[in-house]
Amino acid sequence: MSAEATNPGAPLRKRGRPRIDLRRLGRVALLGPVSRDRLPDAIGHVAEAHRAHYPDADLGILREAYVLAESSHRGQMRKSGEPYITHPLAVTLILAELGAETTTLTASLLHDTVEDTDVTLDQVREEFGDEVCYLVDGVTKLEKVDYGAAAEPETFRKMLVATGNDVRVMSIKLADRLHNMRTLGVMRPEKQARIAKVTRDVLIPLAERLGVQALKTELEDLVFAILHPEEYASTQALISAWGGAQDPLTEIADSVRVTLREAGISAEVLIRPRHFVSVHRVRIKRGEMRGTDFGRLLVLVGEDADCYAVLGELHTCFTPVISEFKDFIAAPKFNLYQSLHTAVVGPEGAVAEVLIRTHKMHKVAEAGVVALGNPYTQDGPTAAQQAEPADERADPTRPGWLSRLLDWQEAATDSDTFWATLRADLAQDREITVFRTDGGTLGLPAGASCVDAAYAQYGDDAHGCIGARVNGRLATLSTVLNDGDTVQLLLAQDASSGPSPEWLDHARTPTARIAITAWLEAHPDAAQGPHRGGPEAPRPQLQPAEDASAGRGRAADRTPSVVVDTPGAPVRLAGCCTPVPPDAILGFTVRGGAVTVHREECPAVTRMRAAGRAAVGARWSDPGDWNGTADYRVTLVAESFGRPRLLADLTEAIATADAAVVSATVEPPSEQRVRHTYTLQLPDAAGLPGLMRAMRDVPGVYDVSRAQQPAATG
Q1: 107-120 residue pLDDT tens
Q2: Is 115 an active-site residue?
Q3: Judging by beta carbons within 10 Å of its beta carbon (0-12, 13-18, 19+), is residue 637 exposed, middle or buried?
Q4: Nearest by Cα to 204 from 448, 426, 504, 480
Q5: Among 41, 115, 154, 304, which one carries the catalytic annotation?
Q6: One of 116, 201, 494, 639 is an active-site residue; which one?
Q7: Is 600 a catalytic residue?
């Protein structure tokens, strides 16, 4: 079945085995005679569709499942007046056309027997095995709750839990909903609208995330027809009018075939008409439709390398629209989708969108996880893949987004919270991939921040996150991530504090929002104060131990360790850069004849030279010539993320290095960052590098540097 569902009246352009029209079969073939002594024609269609994907499949188990389903449902009728057996047959036919394996089809035939007949799970297990029994039980649990405003959240919570263990449960559910939507016309309009809205808000996004585009596109059209009948009718008329006109895509497709044939590339070039919702969206975007807007070209090849060969030929022989190029082969979408997207300019300026993929990619693009077969056989993911959690695509039966849904649904104990969060999460129709520094990846919705990445990677341990590095640069937790970014989350060792309420302003994922909210509710007092990684209330400045200027004067008197080229002149060490051995130094004569000594890289040196001031040569004297006790004063600036006890931890690190605090200031936080300035007295200049390392090792501190400007003195 095409992922680009087309106008039923449009001619099929695909060569080879004709594509089965599921709508027609649902109306005609499934209503054939159902006698007790032979199988109906519908089973023949199921067998034909199944054998197209699995030529060696054993159909015996399907016949046995049909016999049990038909005899169990005998006498039951649908609201449309059809025999009830037509429903499980239609659902099974949908899945067979998508390429579902035999076990899924068997469970699909039986999916309503346990709920609506006298058949028990034990009977299903005895006749068909544990695997079929598990699938039937999973689907049955989803059907036991009627679709009501209060019941809907619990229904889909169960669906997520069941799907977490086997995605085939959701595949059956999606096919079941598709057939029910096809026959929704027998219900009251208000019930049609309610079911259509739930399908739009939850099941269609789930189909998208599972990659089952064939189901998703038809569900979109059916929902569109129910919820927006006028726009649907207008779009239908537009497509019908286009179908009778000259198709400019046909001429471009012929040119592409000739180009590829001359290049020696074996490829199949098809025209893919857009489905109703897609045409409607294009019309809204463009205003006036072009002839090429009603469809796209699909080029199918044998190998991955051929995809890029086709791309090269198209971009060489046609004028490409570079802005339309996307490579989903090198970077597949989160739902397993792979393809090259481009657009080329054909004759008379017509622009045609082109999709390039292998036949295998095409199968997965249409059927998603359904096309993966049975994930629990020897053909499924290897044990090594299943044991490797670093890559979310290692186990295609448990996509990363599904694992995240299962994680937060357990934390969302309130049904209303679960329902609102589920719909908000599924509304994120685009996902990005960010890389961890350990080589793994994280799948996040577009617009996610470092807060979301922290909870995606560390769970509740992310409460201790104090910052991040994005692409090697320090970044605040509010930083929005882009596809392909590399993120390193910085965690503190102090587990006593938690997230800031401001984190909720930057959290986009349910996992992060639920975890943050739970922590804040459990710590109401802490939620009112400063927290790790968030804005921190201004702290009072420490009173300086001594007046800084007086301290510097005494330092010059007690430690005449600098020799200048002006004999007899008083020497002072500059407080703006606090030089210590073995810094390269220069002096400048100031008022009164004293020489103030600066580090050569001090900004004051640049300013005085620009003003024409003459520098005085200066050098450190031999330590043996120093008078008294050689104490050194140095001003350090520590940049950090705000968190509780940070000031105490820094002063403890300073004291451990045998340095004394002369003065210290803490500036008000800005964008979750705090700047500390310390003037320190050291017994030995050789200890300065070790002191700076000790300060950098304090959790939350990301940089410590020498002051390059006049130090604040409190």
Answers
A1: 999 998 888 888 88
A2: yes
A3: middle
A4: 426
A5: 115
A6: 116
A7: no
